[in-house]
Every structure is written in structure tokens, then in C-alpha cells.
Amino acid sequence: MIDQASLDAVDAAQLNSHFIHPLYDSYGFAQIPQTLRCLLTDDQRQGVPFGPRSDLYQKYDTVILFFIDAFGWRFFEQFSDHPFLRRMIDEGLVSKLTSQFPSTTAAHVTAIHTGLPVGQSGVYEWYYYEPLVDALIAPLLYSFAGDSQRDTLQGTGVAPSALYPTHTLYQELKAAGVRSVVFQHLAYAFSPYTELVTNGATIMPYRTLPEAVINLTQLLARQDSRSYYFLYYDHIDTICHLYGPDSPQAAAEITAFLDVMEHIFHANLVRHGQRTLFLMTADHGHAPIDPATTVYLNHTLPPIQGWLKTNAAGQPLVPAGSCRDMFLHIKPEYLDDAHAALQHHLAGKAEVQRVDALIAGNFFGATPPSPTFLGRVGNLVILPYTHESVWWYQKDRFEQHHRGAHGGLTPDEMETLLLVQPYG
Fold this sequence. Notes:
By secondary structure, the protein is of the alpha/beta class. The chain has 2 domains: 4-117 and 148-287 and 410-423, Alkaline Phosphatase, subunit A; 291-405, Gyrase A, domain 2 (2-Layer Sandwich). The protein is 34% helix and 19% strand. It is built from 18 helices and 18 strands. Helix 10 runs parallel beside helix 12 and helix 11 (235-243) packs antiparallel against helix 12 (248-269).
């Protein structure tokens, strides 16, 4: 069943013809951690409303959440006739949600592991300024922004525990007698970031999705206590970045994923006897872009280089965010002039917003942001329209080659979903 109230709520969040305001208190991704608490523990405060299937808000022996990076609402609509999704419509619950802002993986994986919305965790984008190392970093990689290798922050002496939240949802569940198992790809299953934000869970690395699904179902067969299983899958996002969300390659990747879910996951789960609730969500969707039309600010608006804040070494604090939500650290004395100049320069391509205005408008959460977030975020943000991208050029370090991206406020990026299906 499709929850009509969720469609209405997201429609009501439309700001204008271009952008959506993120929801944090109702039909928003940020409510999923509370949903999990309610389904697994004695905490009966509901998260995402279940509307016409409120009967599904019960305490379960088993809860499974698949986090499918980039499988936003646009793809649900496109593939809704696939048997795996059609069953969700006919027997379960389908809700439309908004992403957090920025609509980026870093903010959402941190939220799902720690329970903290983006404005509290401070892990807000793929790249951002980190005061503890006085440089731009790539937090999920534990590296400096633009580095081709992971873990280059090891040489700074700044431990991961100083950079990422240390309280996790898995610690809460463990205290409530719930065992947690996290399935992550082998490439980053034991990264500094993952090990910290999944503390309290058992990590199960995998190489392929069918392998992960079979391993999960084998664990279900041996399960002897209340359990929560989480799986993160990033292949759809990778293909959308490379080829674009409208490409035949993206369609093929999504079809292959859904076929595995139907013929391996569902086929095995129907034989599992315990009361189980399966959920599936995504951090964001994808917007089509063209590298040939990317606006590189340091090429097209050279004065900007003098407006930017610098670190102690004299390096400009750029680029932060992504080409769909570029955050700028502007010197206070140039803020008004830079704002006006960028609005004029990017007219018809993007909006330029003051970050303090977005904070006041609850774009980063329903409560005031944490000191950690405020210490990292810039004071202007560029929000491109559909098909547009704005970035910074540095050969072999910062270049925009993607044909699909996310991070901004357009419906293609911001509209996501929560699918719910009972088993057993």
C-alpha cells in the first residue's frame, strides 16, 4: 500500500519549482533510527508514520534494513512493476520521504549508524573543512579532500574518535538486548570511519550482493535472540555517477539488484519462521548532469579566490560539499559582495543561499545545529538547478567527470523512500 499521507507531506514540502525543503519530524529519512528503536526495543515513540499500516508498528524478533545508496523515489516509480516492488505495494507499505540536506551519503550513513541528524553529527558532505586538521577532508575515506588514497589523515595524529560521533545506535540496541549485524562491502567494512560508527555491531564483509544475501539468510537460520541486520549497497550509486541516472547502464544495474532481491532474498526469507520486518530505504536519488557544462568558479569568476578564507598555511578553504551543493567559506568582509556577485554570475543555473538563513529555516534539522557542525560548515552554499553543476578546478585533484550527482535540493535528489514488508 502506498501511504498517501507521505505523498502529500513531501508535496507540501516543495519550496518552489526547483527545490524541496527536507522533512525531519515526519516523513523524513532522519526519522528512520527512531523507527528502528520502536520496532526492536521498549521505546514506543514512533519514527516514520506507518499511516494505513500502523499495525506494522510492533516489536519484532528480527528487523532487516537494506540501505540502497541512490535508490530514490524516481527509481521506485520507474521500476514499480518489478515483482519485488509490486509485492511491497500489494502487501506491505510504501512511503515517500525526503532526504536530509545535503542529500549526500556521508550525512545519511552517519545518521543511520548513530541516530544523529546531519546538523548534530556534523558529518555533512563528501568534502568539508575540519578545524582539527585545518584542512578540507573526505570524512568517509579518513583522508584529505582530493587524495586518491584512503586513510591519509593517519599522519595528522588526529584519531577517528575526534572526527566522528562515538555514540551509535548499535550500542543502544545492545543495551536493550538486541544483537546487530552490519553488512558492508569488503573494501571499507573495516575502515576507520566504519569501525567507529558501527561500534556495538558485528561487521560482516561481503564481495557481492548475492553472497551477502545468502550469508544473511544463513544467520537468520541460526538466530537465537532478537536481532537487527543492516546491509549497505552502493553499486547503483556508482553506476549513476559514471553514466547518469537516465542511462541504460543504471537501468540494468537496478534491474539486476531487484532480481537478486526477488529470486534470492525473498525466496529465502519466506522460509524464515520468526516474526520479521524488512525495510528498505535510500539516502537520496540522483540528478543528471553533464561534465561539459560544469561551471568552475576559479576559471569563470577569478575574483572569488581573493574572497575565500584560508587556513594557517595560506591555502584557500575550497572546495567543500559537491558540485550539486558547493559550500563556500567566504571572509566576513566580502560575504555580501560575494553573495551578490555569485547570484549574478550563476543566474539561471543555480541559487546562492546564506547558510545562516538555511540554519534558521531548519534545513539541517529540527533543532539548532551542534558546535561541531557550525565549526565545519561554510557561510554560502550554491544550489544548482536540474542538469547544472558548479565546482572548483584543480587538475588531477578536483575535476567534475560525473554524469549523475546529488547533494542538492531538487526532487530528483531529495525524494527518497521507506519500503516495509512483514515476513513470518
